[in-house]
């Protein structure tokens, strides 16, 4: 059976869902928030392409098949993969590269979480980073509107 463009996009979105560790209810809520629909089958090819782009921005579709460990290891107080994906996705939306070794992101971590390098972040620290990035993003959006 030949795969159409729409089927390939659905497959990419499902890969992103799996890599982010999203349960079905979380995935469907995300899908509904971005398209107004709860199933990929109901989405147009343009909507599916936008969803795939969003997952790329979150880092879920980078390096297909590669399993990378989180920058700080995987101890009990270390940030989860989902937290890293969310934080780096927010960093990218704020205009940074979205990489944990980005000098601007390192500086942001020093100011907000008081750590010398993002690899030393704890779960609380990365939560503070995500809150700071969300506020920064809101600030930039409000500034654009004025």
Automatic annotation (TrEMBL):
<protein>
    <recommendedName>
        <fullName>Regulatory protein GemA</fullName>
    </recommendedName>
</protein>
<dbReference type="Pfam" id="PF06252">
    <property type="entry name" value="GemA"/>
</dbReference>
<dbReference type="InterPro" id="IPR009363">
    <property type="entry name" value="Phage_Mu_Gp16"/>
</dbReference>
<feature type="region of interest" description="Disordered">
    <location>
        <begin position="62"/>
        <end position="82"/>
    </location>
</feature>
